[in-house]
């Protein structure tokens, strides 16, 4: 670990970011060049003291999850993320299929604070959510192990399905299976996708039945109906932005203007965080 390089790199990347780049107000009294330390810390999901000690060459060696969080918080490019890992004494993570969200997607997310949106990888693991998305489907970043994948939860945990009307479940099952088939074809033998397939074939007869059909290219369920515990049924359209280099997808949920669902969507920030859910 090169403390001096790490401290200098964090400082220069923080100072290169403007509040507008990350969706923060500039304010009339701002004199700091770039972001303040407390802002960088908050964006990275850590305490100001911990982050500050890294910039002051006093902190412990950051773990790889901490470095990944800093890379997202400071909107680092892949090259910058790799450099961050190396000067902190770790090997750089693989690029394809990594959890690093590119600066472009992070900038888009920063402008969607009032809209349900989330970034998922090709195994339907949620990497980032806006607050309205958490209110709509729950905090999907809290899961660990195989349950990080919505595909796994969908076929093994009945509670996951409560977010959608029961009559829509077969269409979601068909789509999710086809998505995993496509991920498996991209990742190949010995991949995480293959491990998930093998796990689901043992755990779910329903998945095994859909898998045997060997479908690909199944369209998303559109429009998508959500069942919210406080707002009732919400009918939303899902706009999709694909980052092929990272095998990541940005999902943005919108409602028809002037509709009842549009009004309910506006109420999401007021209802807080949903305790459990699913979405993709």
UniProtKB/TrEMBL annotation:
Pfam families the record matches: HTH_31, MLTR_LBD
Span of domain HTH cro/C1-type: 33-81
Family matches, as InterPro entries: Cro/C1-type_HTH, Lambda_DNA-bd_dom_sf, MLTR_LBD
Gene3D superfamilies linked to this entry: 3.30.450.180, lambda repressor-like DNA-binding domains
PANTHER family the record matches: BLL4672 PROTEIN, BLL4672 PROTEIN-RELATED
Protein name stated in the entry: Helix-turn-helix domain-containing protein
Organism field: Streptomyces oryzae
């Amino acid at each position: 670990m090169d403390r001096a390089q790490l401290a200098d790199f964090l400082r220069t990347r923080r100072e290169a970011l403007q509040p507008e780049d990350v969706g923060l107000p500039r304010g009339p009294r701002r004199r700091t060049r770039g972001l303040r330390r407390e802002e960088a810390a908050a964006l990275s999901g850590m305490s100001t003291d911990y982050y500050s000690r890294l910039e002051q060459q006093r902190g412990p060696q950051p773990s790889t999850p901490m470095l990944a969080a800093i890379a997202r918080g400071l909107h680092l490019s892949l090259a910058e993320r790799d450099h961050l890992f190396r000067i902190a004494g770790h090997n750089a993570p693989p690029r394809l299929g990594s959890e690093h969200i590119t600066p472009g997607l992070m900038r888009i997310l920063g402008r969607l604070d009032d809209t349900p949106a989330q970034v998922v990888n090709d195994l339907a693991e949620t990497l980032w959510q806006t607050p309205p998305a958490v209110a709509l489907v729950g905090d999907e970043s809290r899961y660990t192990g195989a349950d990080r994948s919505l595909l796994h939860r969908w076929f093994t945990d009945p509670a996951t399905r409560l977010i959608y009307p029961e009559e829509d479940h077969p269409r979601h099952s068909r789509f999710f299976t086809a998505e995993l088939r496509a991920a498996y074809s991209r990742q190949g033998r010995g991949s995480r996708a293959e491990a998930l397939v093998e796990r689901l074939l043992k755990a779910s007869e329903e998945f095994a039945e859909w898998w045997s059909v060997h479908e690909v290219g199944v369209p998303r369920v559109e429009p998508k109906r959500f069942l919210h515990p406080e707002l009732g049924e919400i009918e939303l359209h899902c706009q999709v932005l694909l980052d092929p280099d990272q095998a990541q997808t940005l999902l943005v949920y919108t409602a028809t203007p002037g509709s009842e669902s549009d009004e309910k969507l506006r109420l999401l920030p007021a209802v807080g965080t949903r305790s459990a859910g699913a979405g993709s």
